[in-house]
């Protein structure tokens, strides 16, 4: 029986301790289900979520853990009931790889919230753990394998399947458009795509907030109409100036009172990243100004198709750094991401794993 090969963490990843870094891993895949396809991975993004999982920052990692939930590849096998895909099709996969199709969430096109969903890695299906795109091949439910527009390259597409859909979905669900003033906190793997969606949606104001002025010009290139540092936002021109604030990056030093001050009365704070530590929100900022808070988790397979079509037409693309597919290069890519050197998404390129 064929073995799938890749790179996995066997214990919590510690940046300064090389013995905890990724190591070769192989496993015998479960039998291909009738509704599944097998995919030979050609490009896989290294996502911030991979770091949270590998380090066990979210306290839910199961080892050995082989990450990779934003990847592209070609279909190499199809189950007996698969009608819409065939061998050779180029497809992309997001953080969810299976849903039941029968529950209220699935029927409402929220398959990513299905209570019986299977995540692309660190999940379980029929007693077998799921392993992601740091491996050479993956088997998933066919409806979650999304055909990719011809004008989006593999390495460009991979980050769209997590960071892209994560930042696109709020624009859809909140009906963010040309009449909306948008604030975006953080110009990283998520934020640089959120800025582009705001540009593509022709939002009347796109205020980008960063810790320093070093990314001001890049923010304007991406589509920002205004730029401010975390110190600037304490001043009058920025107070209560946006309808919706997308938080794409936060940490222990984040001053949530200052960020909430950017939002107009009746506005909304949208959380797109998940820090390891609990968030200390000042309750009064919500109560006295009728501000609401909402989260958003990736998207359904229907949303991903729509997002890729929109990205294709509006030229929304991640800024990527390609790396090779050797163990050494993938470990180095993870270290670069953890050290803040990603600009803005790191993508493993090439078929096969050594």
From TrEMBL:
Tagged with keyword Zinc: yes
CDD domains from the UniProt entry: CAD1 (cd05283)
Every Enoyl reductase (ER) domain range: 16-348
GO molecular function, a single term: oxidoreductase activity, acting on the CH-OH group of donors, NAD or NADP as acceptor
Keywords for the protein's UniProt record, in alphabetical order: Metal-binding, Oxidoreductase, Zinc
Residues forming coiled coils: none
Entries under Pfam families matching the protein: ADH_N (PF08240), ADH_zinc_N (PF00107)
Cofactors (names): Zn(2+)
Annotated InterPro entries: ADH-like_C (IPR013149), ADH-like_N (IPR013154), ADH_Zn_CS (IPR002328), CAD-like (IPR047109), ER (IPR020843), GroES-like_sf (IPR011032), NAD(P)-bd_dom_sf (IPR036291)
Annotated family: Belongs to the zinc-containing alcohol dehydrogenase family.
Protein name (database record): Enoyl reductase (ER) domain-containing protein
């Amino acid at each position: 029986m064929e073995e799938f090969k890749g790179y996995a963490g066997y214990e919590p990843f510690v940046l300064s301790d090389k013995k905890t870094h990724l190591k070769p891993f192989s496993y015998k895949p479960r039998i291909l289900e009738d509704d599944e396809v097998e995919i030979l991975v050609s490009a896989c993004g290294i996502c911030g979520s991979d770091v949270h999982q590998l380090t066990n920052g979210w306290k839910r990692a199961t080892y050995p853990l082989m990450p990779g939930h934003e990847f592209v590849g070609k279909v190499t096998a199809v189950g007996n009931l698969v009608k819409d895909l065939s061998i050779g099709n180029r497809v992309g996969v997001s953080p969810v790889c299976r849903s039941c199709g029968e529950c209220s969430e699935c029927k409402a096109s929220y398959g990513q919230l299905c209570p019986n969903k299977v995540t692309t890695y660190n999940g379980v299906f029929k007693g077998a753990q799921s392993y992601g795109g740091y491996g050479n091949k993956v088997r998933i439910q066919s409806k979650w394998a999304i055909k990719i527009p011809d004008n989006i390259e593999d390495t460009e597409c991979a980050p769209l399947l997590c960071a892209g859909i994560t930042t696109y979905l709020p624009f859809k669900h909140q009906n963010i458009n040309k009449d909306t003033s948008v604030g975006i906190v953080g110009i990283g793997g998520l934020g640089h795509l959120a800025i582009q969606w705001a540009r593509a949606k022709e939002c009347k104001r796109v205020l980008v907030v960063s810790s320093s002025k070093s990314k001001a010009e890049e923010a304007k290139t991406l589509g920002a109409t205004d730029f401010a540092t975390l110190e600037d936002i304490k001043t009058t021109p920025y107070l209560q100036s946006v309808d919706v604030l997308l938080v794409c990056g936060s940490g222990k030093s984040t001053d949530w009172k200052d960020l909430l001050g950017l939002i107009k009365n009746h506005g909304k704070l949208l959380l797109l990243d998940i820090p390891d530590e609990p968030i200390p929100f000042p309750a009064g900022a919500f109560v006295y100004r009728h501000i609401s808070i909402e989260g958003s988790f990736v998207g359904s397979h229907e949303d991903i198709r729509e997002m890729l079509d929109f990205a294709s037409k509006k030229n929304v693309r991640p800024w990527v750094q390609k790396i090779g597919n050797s163990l050494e290069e993938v470990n180095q890519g993870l270290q670069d991401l953890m050290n803040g050197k990603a600009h803005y998404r790191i993508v493993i390129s090439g078929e096969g794993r050594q």
